[in-house]
Specification:
Blueprint: H1 28-56, H2 60-87, H3 96-108, E1 116-122, E2 127-133, H4 137-140, E3 145-146, E4 157-162, E5 183-188, E6 191-203, E7 218-226, E8 233-246
Length: about 250
């Protein structure tokens, strides 16, 4: 070895400094915490959106459920009309009013809870919905429900209907906007019945006086919880029959 020359590096020794080790990622606990916070934020935004939709429109998830139910109910109506016409054929020299009454009585005692009865059309509030039998919880998730114990259109007495105002499509959300003279049309498998609003009032949940039938009167009564988002009171809209046309 020549003097003044540095010794050769041993075999396998690095000729350059080793690279610094990579900086480790955030600890697992920190990542989990971030995911939990993100999930909570997402859920909060979803709940806020649901709340705002409920306040300014209607509850969206139950509205979707009710929309599907209404579609299925509409498909029932043509079959119902055919079946009723076959079961209650027109008698010789029978008037249209008399036949409608016989078909209404047949339908009144034949439909199970939640089954389609006919349609309700209220132009002033933009409502077009299939009416079902019963005002039980399951029935009202499908649409406006007919109070058992009240009559159907075509029979002397009071037709009583109830509906939700914030959930399940909120069919009666705007019944408070109905005014004296507003039209309400019920299309039944046996005829079309037009009513005009005559009164509107607020009462207690236990007050069923508006649903009572009176001799010689043909009325339609709509009821719903009042005010919005509360069941503290009931709003009751009464209407009288102004025309009836056989199907």
């Amino acid at each position: 070895m020549t003097a003044g020359r540095s010794a050769a590096a041993p075999e396998g020794s690095p000729s350059e400094p080793a690279a610094a080790p990579p900086v480790p990622g955030p600890p697992r606990r920190r990542r989990v915490r971030r995911l939990v916070l993100l999930a909570g934020l997402t859920a909060g935004v979803a709940l806020l959106a649901d709340g705002l939709l409920t306040i300014f429109w209607q509850e969206p998830l139950t509205a979707l459920q009710q929309s599907r139910s209404q579609s299925a109910l509409r498909s029932e109506l043509p079959r119902l009309r055919q079946a009723l016409a076959a079961e209650v054929p027109q008698a010789p020299s029978e008037t249209g009013a008399h036949r409608m009454r016989r078909q209404a009585l047949k339908l009144l005692h034949a439909r199970s809870a939640g089954a389609a009865l006919g349609t309700l059309d209220i132009p002033r509030i933009g409502l077009k919905a299939v009416v079902v039998e019963s005002t039980g919880h399951d029935a009202l998730t499908k649409g406006p429900g007919h109070y058992r114990g009240t009559v159907l259109p075509g029979i002397d007495g009071t037709v009583g209907l109830a509906g939700h105002r914030t959930t399940y499509g909120a069919p009666f959300r705007h019944v408070d906007q109905l005014q004296t003279g507003s039209s309400i049309v019920m299309k039944m498998p046996y005829g079309q019945f037009t009513y005009k609003v005559i009164s509107k009032r607020i009462t207690s949940p236990g007050d069923a006086s508006a649903l009572r039938s009176h001799p010689g009167q043909r009325r339609l009564v709509l009821t719903a919880c009042h005010p919005l988002y509360s069941a503290a009171e009931r709003i009751v809209v009464s209407a009288r029959l102004v025309s009836a046309t056989p199907a």
